[in-house]
Design brief:
The protein has two domains: about 5-120 and about 300-310, Nucleotidyltransferase, domain 5, CATH 3.30.420; about 130-295, 2-Layer Sandwich (Nucleotidyltransferase, domain 5), CATH 3.30.420. The chain has ten helices and 13 strands. It has a five-stranded mixed sheet with strand order 3-2-1-4-8, with helices on both faces. A five-stranded mixed sheet has the order 11-10-9-12-13, with helices on both faces. The protein is α/β, with parallel strands linked by helices. The structure holds zinc ion (ZN). Zinc ion (ZN) binds next to loops.
């Protein structure tokens, strides 16, 4: 008998990742593709449908997928398959991705915010296993978040709960991509770390390293003790610590998970972030704070996207 398979798709800024996920949360086939740049929503959707169709053909030997779960880096309304806003993909608004893809692919398509997917993935198979409640920070190009309450994703009234990246952790702080000042994203995103690292290098009178320096390189340097890199990650940690304290005061989750590419920095990031958070919280409450690094890496969003789809299959 062929297994029940859900095709999970994770659409970030430019990378598209696919996983055929079985009902036990195992990724049995994977692939990736690059997205282009788009002037029109219809071009984006057409390309996306073509790419998913291609993966469906590859996965055909596993059986016809029951549905597609699309994790998307933007504000989504999963009840309508709608993407409100896609800041990293053309800046489009109100994309009816779910209904369009269903017509093109001929299977049910569910759309969900990618950080919600990651939170559910880590809850199911990763660092949050067994927790009744958790909050997950995803620190990537931008900063996202997802809330699991009593074992279920909490989406809020319009579907946008957990958008922690644009909560303000420092009034009048650094300018964020959204136009406001002092957002968590302006501290703890990959973009912010690169900016801070270059600023520190310039302040030392040294030219910033030639070519493009990436957050991945900086977190790698930080792990090896490079001073400027440690300081840039420390800057992210400070913002993250304030964000952690705010989330803990607001939701009191059993565990807080930190994932996304920036979390590769490991202890250099989480150590000072947790110290910052504990310094803010009432000491009587701080002892209940549990912060863990995500364990599923890039797979969290794929596994979570599938997990959200399985119960909806008839
Ligand atoms: Zn912002």
């Amino acid at each position: 008998m062929k297994r029940d398979i859900v095709l999970a798709v994770d659409l970030g800024g430019t990378n598209l990742r696919f996983g055929a996920v079985d009902s036990r949360g195992r990724i049995v086939l994977r692939a990736s593709a690059k997205m282009g740049t788009y002037r029109r929503k219809s071009d984006l959707l057409g390309d996306l449908a073509g790419a998913i169709d291609g993966f469906m053909a590859e996965a055909a030997a596993l059986g016809r997928p029951r549905a597609v779960g699309l994790g998307f880096a933007g504000c989504t309304d999963s009840s309508r398959g709608l993407i409100y806003f896609a800041p990293n993909v053309g800046g489009f608004k109100n994309i009816g991705a779910g209904p369009y893809l269903e017509r093109r692919l001929g299977v049910p398509v569910f759309v969900e915010n990618d950080a919600n997917c990651a939170a559910v993935g880590e809850h199911w198979k990763g660092a949050g296993r067994g927790a009744r409640s958790l909050f997950m920070f995803t620190l990537g190009t931008g900063v996202g978040g997802g809330v699991v309450m009593d074992g279920r994703i909490w989406r809020g009234a319009a579907g946008t709960a957990g958008e922690v990246g644009h909560t303000i952790v420092m009034a009048g702080g650094p300018r964020c991509s959204c136009g406001n000042r002092g957002c968590l994203e302006a501290f703890a995103s990959a973009t912010a770390i690169v900016k801070e690292y270059r600023r520190l290098k310039r302040a030392k009178g040294r030219a910033a390293p030639a070519g493009r320096v990436t957050a991945r390189q900086i977190t790698g340097l930080a792990r090896r003790g490079d001073k400027a890199a440690v300081a840039a990650v420390g800057y992210a940690a400070r913002g993250l610590g304030m964000g952690i304290a705010n989330i803990f005061n607001l939701l009191n989750p059993e565990v807080i998970i930190v994932g996304g590419g920036v979390s590769r920095a490991g202890r250099v990031l989480l150590g000072p972030a947790v110290r910052e958070a504990r310094g803010i919280l009432f000491p009587q409450l701080a002892r209940f704070l549990r912060v863990k690094r995500a364990t599923l890496g890039d797979d969290a969003a794929l596994i979570g996207a599938a997990r959200l789809v399985f119960p909806r299959l008839k």
